[in-house]
Design a protein that fits this description.
mainly alpha
Length: 173
Amino acid sequence: MDNSEKDNSLIEQAGEDLFNFAVDRQDVKTLIAHLPHEVQCKPATIEYELQILKIISVGWSVSFYLENNRYKDELAEVFWKAVHGFAGSLSETTGLMTGHDIDYFQILKDRLDIYVAALTEKPEATEPAAVIGPEFARACGNADDVFTVMTGSRMFIAAVGSVKEYLETINLL
């Protein structure tokens, strides 16, 4: 196997691994299980938004950490293609169950745009999680709910940290 084939294999595997991590629900379930009773947002909404936040945090992390890396575009494409396929399947299943058309991939793109815009509006923020947490709570229905803010911040920090660790492990950073 030549270097080009090894590189392609590495990127394909990395994209698959990152996708599987992004859609894994264990950490979402853990965060939901530890929500305090005082939380003002609906737990079902928080759970839904946490999964969205995790997926887009993983995708955002690839672009962020690999900003000047020659594999950035290729890895991002592999990851987002997998997300697109997953979203299409989820949209179809949800549509059949509810009788309403839904475009889950568009929802993901819209949320990503919202989070990126929030980060852009607050360039003075020293930690992105300080911006993401309140934006997450806003998406859940109450930007002032400190428990929801903290839950979103935790998810963002954990997802971004896991992606960085993974990219270091496979020697892309």
